[in-house]
């Protein structure tokens, strides 16, 4: 009965693609954002500063009451309705309030309201970690976020090597004796002539004799 055929080829195993897991980035932590009691707004760094989901910054404030009146000799004189009730004059988008009426107080330009609280547009410096687009929208800076969340690689100290006393001399004598004896493979080829061997440590230093 004939011997079975031997397959000398290497076993074929399907290659597996191994990918490193994507780093988990905590954007809110890097930017100092936390939830707030106002829908659609995140608080920035525990300050009176809020980031809108549409890309704007706002700060909460309390608008002063809206009052209507006339300027008389440089002084504002409020106008009230009958029996001291509030007075709301007619308003035209073209001519404004009629009868020389002006208004003070009330909402500032761009005010929004969230859950009964008034917020006005923030006009200070851009908070750290955000960039402003050409459209005036603030977006998180991914470069900043990565810089805050990349693992910090500890610097490894330079390794130093020390020579073991007697190490070089002992090994050198052993090789020399083998070469001079002529009984070893080294002796046959070296013919008794052993070149100087530098068995120093990686630093280049040799042991003191």
Rounded radius of gyration (Å)? 42 Å
Q: Main beta sheet, described?
A: 6 strands, antiparallel
Order of helices and strands: HEEEEEEEEEEEEEHHH
Mean pLDDT: 76
State the helicity in percent bands.
10-25%
How many strands in all?
Answer: 13
Large-scale geometry: rod-shaped
Q: Strand order across the biggest sheet?
A: 1-2-3-4-11-10
**Number of helices in the DSSP assignment:** 4
Characterize the structure shown.
The protein has 209 residues and is an alpha+beta fold. It folds into three domains: 22-63 and 107-150, no CATH class; 64-105, no CATH class; 164-201, no CATH class. The chain contains four helices and 13 strands. The chain has helices spanning 27-31, 142-149, 167-181, 185-190, and strands at residues 33-35, 41-44, 50-52, 57-61, 64-72, 75-78, 91-92, 96-97, 102-106, 112-114, 117-121, 130-132, 138-140. It has a six-stranded antiparallel beta sheet with strand order 1-2-3-4-11-10. β5 (64-72) and β6 (75-78) form a beta hairpin. It is rod-shaped, with a radius of gyration of 42 Å. The two termini are 71 Å apart. The model has no long low-confidence stretch (mean pLDDT 76).
In short:
With about 210 residues, the chain is an alpha+beta fold. The chain is built from 4 helices and 13 strands. About 15% of the residues lie in helices and about 25% in strands.
Give the topology:
Blueprint (H helix, E strand, L loop, with lengths): L26 H5 L1 E3 L5 E4 L5 E3 L4 E5 L2 E9 L2 E4 L12 E2 L3 E2 L4 E5 L5 E3 L2 E5 L8 E3 L5 E3 L1 H8 L17 H15 L3 H6 L19
Antiparallel strand pairs: 1-2, 2-3, 3-4, 4-11, 5-6, 5-9, 7-8, 10-11, 12-13
């Amino acid at each position: 009965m004939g011997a079975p055929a031997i397959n000398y080829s290497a076993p074929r195993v399907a290659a597996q693609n191994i990918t490193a897991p994507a780093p988990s980035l905590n954007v809110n932590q890097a930017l100092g954002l936390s939830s707030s009691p106002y829908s659609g707004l995140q608080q920035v760094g525990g300050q009176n500063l809020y980031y809108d989901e549409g890309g704007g910054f706002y700060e909460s404030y309390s608008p002063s009451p809206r009052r209507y009146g006339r300027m008389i000799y440089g002084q504002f004189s409020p106008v009230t309705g009958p029996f001291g009730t509030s007075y709301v004059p007619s308003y035209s988008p073209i001519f404004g309030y009629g009868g020389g009426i002006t208004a003070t107080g009330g909402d500032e330009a761009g005010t929004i309201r969230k859950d009964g609280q008034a917020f006005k547009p923030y006009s200070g410096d851009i908070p750290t970690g955000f960039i402003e687009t050409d459209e005036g929208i603030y977006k998180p800076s991914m470069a900043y976020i990565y810089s805050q969340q990349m693992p910090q690689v500890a610097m490894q100290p330079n390794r130093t090597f020390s020579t073991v006393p007697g190490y070089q001399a002992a090994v050198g004598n052993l090789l020399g004796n083998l070469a001079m004896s002529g009984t070893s493979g080294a002796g046959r080829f070296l013919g008794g002539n052993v070149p100087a061997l530098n068995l120093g440590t990686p630093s280049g230093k040799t042991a003191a004799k």
